[in-house]
Design brief:
With about 300 residues, the chain is of the alpha+beta class. The protein is built from 13 helices and six strands. The protein has helices at about 1-20, 45-50, 55, 60-85, 90-115, 120-130, 130-135, 150-160, 165-170, 175-180, 195-205, 240-270, 275-285; strands at about 35, 40-45, 135-145, 185-190, 215-220, 220-230. The strands form two sheets. The chain has a four-stranded antiparallel β-sheet with strand order 4-3-6-5. The longest helix has about 30 residues, at about 240-270.
Amino acid sequence: MRFRRNNMVVLLFLLAIGMMVFSGCKKEEKGKVIVKVGKSILTVEELLSQIPPQLLVNTSPQNRSRILEEWMAGELMYQDALRQGFDKQPAVSEQLKQLKKQIITQAYIQDLMAASSFVSEDEAMAYFNEHEDEYNTVIEVSHISLNSVGMARTVLKELEDGRSFSSLARKYSADSSTAIKGGYFGSLRKGDLERLPLFETHAFSLEKVKDITPIVQTEFGYDIIRLLSRKKSRKRIGYADVSESIKMALRQQKTQRRYESLIDSLKNEIAVELHPEILEQELGISMLNVPIMPVEQGE
């Protein structure tokens, strides 16, 4: 019991610290005030919106009092920092500007995407019927993960020149867990990689053993993926086994399409300029004009 109580106290203090950061100064007193520091107040309602009532009920009066003291201490330090002009410091101002941008953008994206990511049972079932063979196929793949397009192009050129895929994976791949195995990622069937949908999609796009993808962007970075084997699975997979992973994948696809459509639309409304070549020059990196095409290369 003591262990659980100590954990609860730690959680309450963490929540209290979060409240220090996000609470603001208020001049109007709405609700029952439990702490007041200058013109800034904390009400019972605000406290309960940050900390679940059950957590507060199950801790001691002393700990509840300490939560209020922590909020008071944080507010005192915040107000003193403002008096000394810390919010005007260039580094702090820049961080505040970036934080504001992130919060506004995140709220905007969530609002836009909420209505467009719904997936019905019929949509999920239709997708499964169309890809049933893939869900009952097991593939083995290797990959080379690179942190930049430039490095990926260098590796692709070496593959085209006849270098071994496994040796290049050991030398260049940023995925250390597979690099030591010559890039071997393992075997999988469609739906296994719920958190890596891009990687899974590109891996299953390969049809012939030894086929290699072009440079593709995945959750790892810039990838080159190689198909090692492709065969039918022994155990048949039905819709019920993969319905949730299908819905998740379709939601991600809808969200991505909506995002890309939005960006294309906004680019027609707001003037933009992109100069990656200047960045490459400043970094001293030569941009190789290697065509991004699939290649086949044996070990």
